[in-house]
Write a structure and sequence with these properties.
The chain contains ten helices and 13 strands. Helix 1 crosses helix 7, helix 2 packs parallel to helix 4 and helix 6 packs across helix 8. By secondary structure, the chain is of the alpha/beta class. The chain binds uridine-5'-diphosphate. The site of uridine-5'-diphosphate has 14 residues, from helix 6 and strand 8.
């Protein structure tokens, strides 16, 4: 039996695909390569296809004995989702309905879904726990919340078993340096700071220094991509044992400010670079920190790489390797 990894050529999907393969599982990666990278799929089968075409995803279920799905395929640029919400609802919601339809048709009833802390919107307090209100403030978060609701309803009506994993800020890279984060365009803090450290960009911009935080910059909860990966595997194993469908936050329960991330990068890389203080980026809450007690208790999850310097070190190793390959 095999695990279908939708979006397995992307950042988080490619890391989880590697971890599943290392566990000895068969995997089938399905990805349209719009944002994913073919070279990130070094494990399992690869099928290029798009969830917007029901025939393409159904063909995968016809060809392979898929008994569970991990669904990473989505657009995830918050700002873009505000400008072009249709793109997000079509891709993140409608395409997921096609996937769930194919699963139903082929008797596959287990799915691990990539949700997000963006489903909570502006939190009333931190750390955020799972039963706090979900009031997303952008179409990206809303699209993920819609899918959570669909999963709940399909669970009740059709017996679908699911885990919705609400990620905080995914960061870091494969500790063995084989794969890492590679977005075009890049909007995420850590890769941008690494670009400044390696001289690829002239500076790093700090979006806002007047937030009500300890140093005025935004605080986020950075979680290593392999720690996300181990939670996916534990969530799948739980469903395989007959566990109930549920939602889990995945974070380190620890906030790191933008300025602290920059300091960690300077320390790990030994490089100095220009830091430009600029205005706030619209839509950024001051502080997002996730309470992950539920994942720890129910799934037995324990992050291995919680330290920001370790996260940065792994990301830097990958960054240097990629730069080296580009210069060859
Ligand atoms: N950020 C920043 N400069 C950048 C990119 C991001 O100061 O060039 C800040 C951003 O305002 C946020 C934090 O870094 O507070 C993390 O942003 P990112 O885009 O990595 O993730 P998000 O929290 O938006 O999911």
């Amino acid at each position: 039996m095999a695990v279908l990894v939708c979006g397995g050529a992307g950042y988080i999907g490619s890391h989880v695909n590697k971890m599943l393969s290392r566990q000895g599982r068969e995997t089938v990666v399905f990805d349209n390569l719009v944002y994913g990278h073919r070279e990130a799929v070094k494990w399992g089968q690869f099928i290029q296809g798009d969830l917007k075409n029901p025939d393409e995803i159904e063909a995968v279920f016809e060809k392979y004995p898929i008994d569970a799905v991990m669904h990473f395929a989505a657009y995830a640029y918050v700002g873009e989702s505000v400008i072009d919400p249709e793109k997000y609802y079509m891709n993140n919601v409608a395409c997921t309905l096609n996937l769930l339809h194919a699963m139903r048709k082929h008797g596959c009833n287990k799915i691990i879904f990539s949700s997000t802390c963006a489903t909570y919107g502006e939190p009333e307090k931190v750390p955020i726990v799972e039963d706090m209100p979900q009031n997303p403030i952008n179409p990206y978060g809303a699209s993920k919340l819609m899918v959570e609701r669909v999963l709940r309803d399909y669970g009740q009506a059709y017996g679908l078993k699911y885990a919705a994993l609400r990620y905080f800020n995914a960061a870091g890279a494969d500790p063995e340096g084989e794969i890492g984060e590679d977005h075009t365009p890049e909007t995420h803090l850590i890769p941008l700071v690494l670009d400044a450290a390696s001289g690829k960009r002239p500076d790093v911009k700090v979006f806002g220094t007047d937030y009500p935080t300890r140093d005025g910059s935004c605080i986020r909860d950075y979680i290593h991509v392999n720690d996300l990966g181990s939670a996916h595997i534990l969530a799948l194993e739980r469903l395989e044992r007959g566990g109930e469908s549920d939602c889990f936050n995945l974070g380190n329960e620890k906030g790191t400010s933008v300025l602290e991330v920059i300091e960690a990068v300077k320390k790990v890389t030994g490089k100095d670079f220009k830091v430009t203080l600029t205005d706030r980026r619209p839509g950024d809450p001051a502080t997002l920190v996730g309470g992950s007690g539920k994942a720890k208790t129910v799934l037995g999850w324990e992050p291995r790489y919680a330290d920001i310097e370790t996260i940065v070190e792994h990301a830097w190793r990958w960054h240097m390797r990629k730069m080296g390959e580009m210069n060859q």
